[in-house]
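Hi Y.,

Following your request, here is the sequence exactly as I used it, all 272 residues.
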Amino acid sequence: MQLKFQSLAWFVLMVSGIISCGLIWEGCSKGGGVNIFTVEDDIKLGKQLQQQIASDPAKYPILDPSRYAKAYQHLYRIRDVILNSGKVKFKDKFEWDLKIINDDNTLNAFCAPGGYIYVYTGLIRFLNKENELAGVLGHEIAHADLRHSTDRLTAAYGVEFLLQVLLGKNSNALGQIAANLALLAYSRSNESQADSYSVEYLCGSEYDARGTAGFFQKLIGQGMSGGQPAFLSTHPNPENRVENINKKWQSMGCSGTGTFESRYQELIRALN
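Below is the corresponding structure, written out as C-alpha cells. Let me know if you'd prefer a different format.
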C-alpha cells in the first residue's frame, strides 16, 4: 500500500481537505472529494470484500456460474459493452468480476471498490428491458471507476478504520462493510455523475442509452420512487434524474434504439 503522504502533518492536512485535489493525482476522485487511497488500495479492499461475501452464502447466496452459465453469459455480454465503450478508465486495471446474488426480494446491485460487481435476481426480475439493466450496470460501474466507493466508505467509516482493514489488522470489520455496500449512500454529485457516465458508456452502442431513466420511470410508475433500491432512491429524486439523463442523451446525440425485451426474457428464464 502506497499512501501519498510524507509526514503526519501533511497527512492531516490532506484528510481535512485543506490541500487541493490538484496536488494529488491518485488521491482525488472525480467526484471532487479527497480520497487518500490509491487505485491499488481500491483493488485490495474490493478483493477482501469479495472474499468476505463468498464466505457468507447465507447472506449472499451466489448463483453458481457453471450451473447458470446462460444467465452469466447474458450479464457478461452487457458488462463488456460498457467496458469496451472506451470510457472506463480502469477497464484493464480492475477485475470487473460479476456475480449474481439469488435474492428475489432485493431490488439492488452494487459494485465494490476495484470493480467487483454484484446483481440481485430481484433487480433482474423487476426489469423487462435489457437496456434498463445495462443502464443500471453502467451506473454501478461508474461508481467504482470514478472511485466514489472508497470516497463514501471513507466518509462512512473513517480513515483510520479503513487503513486498519487494508493492513489486515481489523479483518472482523469486513463483514460489516460488506453488509453495508448495497446500502452505501453516495452524494448527490456522485449519483448525478454516475447517471451521466451510464449514458456515456452506452451512447455508442446498439442500446438506447437512457436505460437508467427507463428504470426510474418504472419505479415512479409503481409508486416506488421513495423506497428501494437504496442506490437509486437517493437525492436527487427519480423524476429529476430522468430529466437529467434525457438531457445528457440528447446533448450527446446518441443513436442507439435497442431495448431488447425478448432477449431480456431469455436472461430471466435462465435464472430458473
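The first strand starts at residue 98 and ends at 101.

Thanks again,
Q.
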